[in-house]
Amino acid sequence: MDQCGAKLNKSTVSISECRSYTLHEVQSAVEKSLDGIGGIQSFVKPGDTVLLKPNMLQAKSPEVFITTHPAVVEAVINIVKDAGAVPMLGDSPGGPARGMERFWEITGFADVCKRTDTQLVNFEKSGIYEFERNGRTYRVARPVLDADVIINMPKIKTHGLTKFSCAIKNIYGVIPGLQKTEYHKLAPKPSDFAEIIVDVFALSKPHLNIIDGVIGMDGMGPSAGNPKEIGVIVASDDAVAVDSILCHYLGKDPMEVPTNRIAYEQGLGEASIENINVLGEFPIVDAFKWPLNVAGSIEVVPSFISRALMKLYYSRPAINPDLCTNCNTCVQSCPTDAILEKRPTPIFEYERCINCLCCMEMCPEKAVFDDKNSIYRFISRFSGSD
Ligand code: SF4
Ligand code: SF4
């Protein structure tokens, strides 16, 4: 859709077609997207330090499409350097981040940064700034806020808890270490957790968002879903507008995604489709699969009741023993210590489980699955949610 002629005060989202991860095609697409919002010079001045924040959820190769593709990272590094600025790259993975070098190597970021002489920063070791927002305390990695410019570089993915993971959710990785999973304890419901994500986003608001939408992920993202060809690079200075317009094009009302709704209500960006100026064409994407988001079904229930209801109605995580390698990443990722180390596979203590799905998100073998009980199956058959 091309809506040229829209009012200048609208948020602008600039879309470019990109059908492969060859560096030449990606860089052309990134440059074209940036041209639509004034070019890199509108965001970066010579001598600026620029923190690139990709999605580095797990130590996984680019070929499984969980992390931002290194070709997109390299293209943005080249563009930032051409503008006379100094790029650096950092992110904190979703679970225990022992041996950050392994994450950098496997995701392809180390290779790109070596070739382009770009600094990799380890958020787990670089200190924090502490903030209060909405009565909660947050610790943000220092390099994020010390940089002159933050460029947010997510991948388009679904999310089992918050439905969508892109520009707003990607900023959650500025929280170092397992503090990220600790926040799940405070927020068993998706909307509660989305408030925390939006708090972090507001404290570390990116100046520019460049989205890897060449191959995204649908189904049970952000790590256990399926690669989905979308074929775009997207740029905007408004993360809320980007996420909202992408949800809209992928068949989801942006207001059904709690991070969009809450960020919009807090005045952090535009989520109203008619108020977003879209440049470029978004391709037709067949049968994009959204996650079930079972936790969303009890949004109407007070948080203190939600845990009890989960036992009666909710689906719950379980482990496929044929896939489990007993690596214990799920044990270390669980914010409520609801998973115990056992052989041949860990076991769940469901009375402590808050259904945050971190274990499913972090399992490197896709061994954790959504085990629905019969009540859930019965109700979902009539509600059409399954
Ligand atoms: S379920 Fe996954 S994360 Fe947990 S021990 Fe097995 S392989 Fe590791
Ligand atoms: S067992 Fe899994 S879903 Fe339950 S609280 Fe722990 S990480 Fe979250």
UniProtKB/TrEMBL annotation:
InterPro entries: 4Fe4S_Fe-S-bd, 4Fe4S_Fe_S_CS, DUF362, PSI_iron-sulfur_center. One of its GO terms (molecular function) is metal ion binding. Keywords: 4Fe-4S, Iron, Iron-sulfur, Metal-binding. Residues 315-345, 346-373 form the 4Fe-4S ferredoxin-type domain. Gene3D superfamilies: 3.30.70.20. This is Thylakoid-associated protein sll1697.
